[in-house]
Structures are given as C-alpha cells and as structure tokens.
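Q: I'm writing a short explainer about L-carnitine CoA-transferase for a general audience and would like to include a description of its predicted shape. Could you first generate the structure from this sequence?
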Amino acid sequence: MPGFGSLEGVTVVYSAIEIAAPTAAALMAEWGANVIWIENTRVGDSMRDTAFIKEVERRNQRSVCLNPFKPGGREAFLKLIEKADIFIESSKGPVYKNRGLTDELLWEHNPELVITHVSGYGQYGEDVRVNRAAYDRTVQAYMGYLSQNGTPEQPMAPGPYVADYFTALMVTSSSLAALYRAKRTGTGESIDCAMHETLLRVGAYYMVDYLNAGVEYPRPGPRNQNLCAIGEYECADGWVSIICYGAPQNKYLLETIGLGHLWGTEEYPDGTTALWRDGPQAEAIEKALGDYLRTQKVADVERDFTAQAIAAGEMLEIRDLEAQEHFQLREDFIEWETHEGKTVKGVNIFPKFARRPGTIWRPMPALGQDTADVLTAAGVSPEELEALQEQGIVRLGD
Ligand code: COA
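A: Of course. Here's the predicted structure. Afterward I'll give you a sentence or two in plain language.
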C-alpha cells in the first residue's frame, strides 16, 4: 500500500454490510487508512450484489473472509485487532458482546483500540428494539424523520439512503475524534452509534419547535415548513430550486413578483429577513411567486436571482452532471479499473485535501482476496490458516 493521505499509518478493521458502517471505513480508506474489510464466510457482504456502487464503497480495501465467532476465527480476529487502531462493527444490537467478544476483551489485546458499534437502535435500551434488524427507511420511520418529508397525504423517505449515509459520517467523525484522544492518552474508546440517534441529531431542526412550543408543521411537500419562497418551483422550461432569505432579497422578490407594495408596510416592515409561512400575506406571496416563475425560463431566473444574492439554481438531472464545466474543472467524476480489468466510472475522492490528497490505490478486492496475506501478516501461521480454511472459518480468494 502506498503511503498517502491524512490517515496514513492508521489501520481500520470493520465487519459490517451495505452502507452505514462500511462507508465510514470507505472514507477513511480514501484518506489513506489501511482498511481491512471482514466479510461473512457464508455469503460475503451483500453490497457485492450491486452492479457499480460497490466499486466506490469498497475501493482501497482488503477483503478478509473470516468468521470471528467460531473458535480459531476468534483468535485470528483478535490478532487483527492487536494491530488495529479502529474497529467498526454493525449488527442487530450487542451481538459482539453476546458472543463473548466484549470491549474489555478487545482492550486486553489492544488498550488503545477505538471500538465503534453501529446498530439501528443502540447497544442497550428496550430489548425488542435493540435486537432488531434495521435499514435506512425503517430507522427514518421510527424516529420522526420520514414523517417530516412528503406531502400531507403521503409521507416519503428522502433518498438515497440518507439514514445510512448520515450514520456513516457520524461513525467517521466519532471514530476519528476518539482516535485523536486515544493516541494522546493511550486509552481506547467504545462508541455506541445508533442509527436512530444519528437521525435525531441531524433531524432536530423542527423537532425542537415541538419540544419547546408544541409546534407541529404539516408535511411541506416541495416547499419549506415555515418560510415562503423556499422550494422547488416550476418554470416555463424546467424546475428551479430557490431559497430566498434576507431583507434585500425579500424586497427584490416581492417587487419582482408584483407585490412590491407589501414592502415597508406594517405587515412586512423594511428589513424583514424572513417571509414566514404563517405571515399575513404568505398565501398571496406563494401564489404570486408560483405564477411569476411559470412564465419565466430557468436560466433567466437563475441569473436574475443570483445577481440579487438569492440562492437559486436549475434542478439538474443525474444525466446533466458530467457536462457541467464546474464538475469537469474539479474532476468530480473519475474512472478506474476494477479487479476484473473493467473500467468503472464513479465519484472522485472528497473533500480535496491540499497537502495530503486521497488517492485510489486499488479497486474493490474479490471476496477473500486478502485473507491469506492479511492474516499471515497478523501472525496466523500457514498451518493454522489451512486448518481454518478446512473448517470453513476462513475463505481464501480464488
Ligand atoms: N462470518 C460469519 N458470520 C457472520 C460474520 C462473519 N464475518 N459477521 C456476521 N455474521 C453473522 C451475524 O452474527 C448474523 O448471525 P445471526 O443471524 O445468528 O444473528 C449473520 O451472520 C447475519 O448477520 P448480519 O450481517 O447482521 O446480516 P442480517 O441480514 O441478519 O442483518 C442488518 C443485516 C444490516 C439488518 C443488521 O446487521 C443490522 O441491523 N445492522 C445494524 C444497522 C445497519 O447497519 N443497517 C444497514 C444500514 S446500510
């Protein structure tokens, strides 16, 4: 592995499937960490069933096919842990603890280890909740995130997989925060990262209005819960997305849509920064804005509103992105070769670090491709490896 990135020298071991936990490891792999992906000996990671996204989410990693819950596999796993800085696992509740792989045992083998347990609902709490399988939408449904999106008639889960990806960012940041402290103090950490609590944190914006004042907003559809002139609006030739906020912006908007007489009145005094949806003329503002925009072209609205410091822009489709000059100048899409020798296209490595940039040094490995190399380097003898293979406790790549 070449040395690169801010996480050069950091070893991350993870055992998890799909997105929520693995994408945290994927980001660290992109920023230079040595990432060891433990795959299920029976089926591998279900992410392998996808056509292309697996190539993004598992690049720069090593695949070790190992069952840590069986005798022999357990010892091999603990050897891996001895050389790791961060261990991330995702399960239906406290599976590692229930199977004897407690935090205390892992710390006996590596006192500085940062252990990040990812689950739908945490390591403790109500038993029926804690031990449940959890995926993106079901977690969104449980914690009031889903109920805030869609129309009054039909809740709709925002996608793609926001609960998973938000969790991945929470796992990344909390694991690295703990690593910083562990390296300074010599003492490891155990993190209980519940997907529902991640969504409570990032979904708190309107929730606190209810907690403190009992305010409940109807599901807003394509508009904002409590402010006018925020949303996706239909123009003569497509969709524009607008967030109008601030006094000069509101003045310009009202004048442009033919309601300039409202500005500087008792209802909308000069200096009004927010056009509240429960304000006196909210309905008239939304109607006039909608009527105005339906007569306009997207590019004209974008140009005119942007010139007035109103955030406004065309809503692009995925197929529009590659042609954007801005994307091209920043090389936001790139190609690399898969382990099967095919070219795959995906997103580049973000964010862009100026001094220690990330890189793609290897594609997603085949199932168990690195089992032998990684376990041998961790101290498992060739004889032990062979015995583990015969018992189905490890799988070696083809
Ligand atoms: N080798 C062999 N067995 C392994 C293994 C390995 N390396 N790693 C895990 N296993 C076992 C598990 O302990 C489990 O055993 P069990 O059925 O006796 O409990 C079994 O293999 C399947 O485990 P798992 O990977 O958890 O698959 P699942 O289909 O039962 O559940 C999830 C998948 C994602 C629903 C579940 O792991 C979960 O709720 N995780 C937390 C939230 C999460 O990450 N969700 C996905 C977001 S993208």
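A: For your explainer, you could say: The mean pLDDT is 97.
Q: Perfect, that's easy to follow.
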